[in-house]
Design brief:
homodimer; alpha/beta; Arc Repressor Mutant, subunit A; Nucleotidyltransferase, domain 5; five-stranded mixed beta sheet; 14 helices; 14 strands; DNA-binding
DNA sequence: AGGCTTTGTCCTGAGTGTGGAGAAAGTTGG
DNA sequence: CCAACTTTCTCCACACTCAGGACAAAGCCT
């Protein structure tokens, strides 16, 4: 099957494609209300898009008191691949042009196995999605990796938790294998874009998206656009010092946020508490599974275990302390918290909120929602699809 | 005398005006090299600007091997007023359209005397500058205040150190008095814009500008544009907590950065040290003046006084610790340090650098200059002039 | 059936912008 | 001093963009 070859010829067409992506099917008249163009000009550009095949007119909508309108929509056979490489698992999903997830696979895998092994797995999963009939091919792919990325080239740089990936040409390699355009970004940025597209951040202009998984990172959105910093490492808050002479961190320093609270740190603390006999609940789970994860701590907390609750509360205080500083500095309109520890839920959220509302000035916190992400694992892959669609839906 | 009434009619004209402002006089050909327009279209827009009087063609430049070019420049009689309200003094300056400071006055004054008294003083100073022949009137004015500002309206909101200003219609009032357009911003943002226009940040895209005066604030520039946050309080880093249960701060919290280090805190610490007999040098100065300021500490340090050096070092460590966190988060391409304590100079800078380079990841600090601002008190007023010129040099 | 509404198409005219021809004004070398 | 060349600037013809109005198509309601 022939995949998408055309690109919008000008900014009007690009804007129309994004309107259709974000707003679903529309009539020409509805599009006209949302774009600053005359009806005549709009009609010309829509016609050109129809010619390219990027957009189709299928069927008529119900009348709204007059002539029925044509349904203009993005070509229904368009498919994007969203890939989210986490520290301990890989998510791969296929979406349509409106970025709705049609199929989603997850596979546990350590990112430290290196790019070659991970890519092999990604391609297997992509093939599986294709075989299931959800896609005959991919028109573009977005991929997120858990570390800083030199964005224009799509190459990870100096990633602390995935040393084997340093300088690996992710974009080029995946583009070769899949035969379609590929864009690469930090996994946290993709989560932010996912929540922006279909989650809690739909209406936010400036917001922060804190992802707490194995590590901790923060997506920064300024005026609707992801901010990546000068070298692509913006949002790398896991190594902000929260305790002078605190715990040793993998990065070589002491007292980093990540060393004191993250999915990995929480699991370790829980295991320590279990072995020290502080919690029968956690000890039982450790006995059963041989190890503990953030999910176990969440379950123990839900069961009312005071040690687990303490661990979560203390962790929330740590993150909250850092977020309070970021809120003072950045003055966002929204803070989203997501990642693997979302299961810790409102216990975590409560202590984060307490810290932020107590430590930041009222002007910055007065009208500041601090909420959990609502997309869960779909945030990353949705964001990945949005990344590549942003790229393809802009003039060549 | 008639002041500037015309505004650029389109974005081309606006871009031309800014090119002339930032690059000085130019021929049509030189302008053509810096703008993406054909020579013919360029000529048309330049002619229209000449008609409005915003731009003049005076004289011919030396030949560069062919026909001599006309010097195109901004109207030489254009005048902007730059006002920088500090916590303890007021700066007022007049600039030409290229934002060169033609005259600059400073007057010690406590901002807590309130907007009415301060405005009176500002108008006296503006009149003095006019009387000296530097200006016959003002085509626009920019004004900075030491607190958050609701930018679109030009109104201070909930400013901690200047309670009497809350909600005072600064923009409207000053515009009435001066009879010209006025824009209002936070003083820190103006310092950033000043250093961006004519100082160390001329080539920086994303940078931070930390101003340490009576308080501490931080200007944030993203892609060349000042970022002000959702409620105008972005960069308000003075109340980030640096020590749990630390010193009491005027804001009601404990352990704020500003309480531990700032011009005010430094002066107080120095006085305490002098009274405690820890430093003969500082004691002598306290004796002489009845009080100490950051300038005294700088002088004592320059004279080799170890107590003063310690105070500066310790303060630098505090700020450095916060800046390290911001660098990890924001990944700027440059950090500028300015404000009243610039006199502490390289002693301060050294400890800030040590903290940042030690605590932040190499990817973020690898190529990160941390430098002192080079404009001193001119940064604020230059930034103020730039603020209003940005406003006037954009389509109406 | 007739009037009204909504949707979509067509056409004209104003304005925007490009590129080339060429005039104006200078330098350089013989 | 003249011819050749360079740089700067102006003028003009042509293509393209885009808005707005007229009008046709297709529906609803009475």
């Amino acid at each position: 099957m022939r995949r998408m070859t055309a690109r919008p010829a000008n900014t009007h067409q690009a804007r129309l494609l994004r309107l259709l992506r974000d707003g679903g099917p529309n009539s020409r008249a509805q599009l006209g209300d949302r774009i600053d163009l005359s009806r005549s000009k709009l009609a010309v550009e829509v016609d050109r898009l129809l010619e390219t095949g990027l957009v189709v007119a299928d069927g008529l909508a119900a009348s709204r008191g007059g002539r029925r309108s044509h349904n203009i929509r993005l070509a229904p056979q368009l498919r994007f691949l969203g890939v989210d490489i986490g520290a301990t698992s890989v998510d791969v999903a296929v979406t349509n042009a409106e970025l709705e997830v049609l199929g989603h696979l997850n596979h546990p895998m350590d990112v430290r196995e290196g790019p070659v092994a991970v890519f092999e797995q990604v391609l297997v999963m992509a093939a599986k999605l294709r075989a299931s009939g959800l896609a005959e091919g991919f028109d573009g792919a977005g991929i997120g990796v858990p570390g800083p990325v030199r964005f224009p080239e799509g190459v990870p740089v100096a990633p602390p938790i995935m040393p084997g990936w340093d300088g690996f040409p992710v974009r080029e390699a995946l583009s070769q294998e899949l035969g379609c355009p590929v864009m690469v970004d930090n996994d946290v940025n993709l989560m932010a874009m996912g929540e922006q597209h279909a989650g809690v951040a739909r209406t936010a202009g400036d917001f922060l998206c804190v992802k707490i998984g194995t590590g901790i990172g923060c997506g920064i959105v300024v005026g609707g656009e992801v901010y990546r910093g000068t070298t692509g490492s913006a949002g790398d808050i896991g190594h902000i010092q929260v305790e002078p002479d605190g715990r040793a961190c993998a990065c070589g320093n002491r007292g980093c946020l990540e060393a004191h609270f993250s999915g990995a740190a929480l699991a370790r603390d829980a295991e320590d508490a279990a072995r020290a006999g502080q919690s029968a609940e956690l000890a039982a789970r450790l006995e059963a599974a041989g190890k503990l994860t953030a999910v176990d701590v969440a379950a123990a907390a839900a069961a009312g275990d005071p040690t687990a609750l303490d661990l979560i509360r203390e962790g929330g205080n740590r993150v909250g302390q850092v977020i309070a500083g970021l809120v003072s500095f950045f003055n966002p309109g929204l803070v989203v918290i997501g990642g693997g520890v979302t299961g810790l839920g409102h216990n975590l959220l409560a202590s984060v909120r307490t810290q932020v509302y107590r430590q930041s000035l009222p002007l910055a916190t007065g009208n500041l929602p601090i909420v959990l992400g609502e997309l869960g694992p779909a945030a990353g892959v949705t964001g990945a699809a949005r990344l590549i669609s942003d790229h393809l839906f802009s003039p060549a």
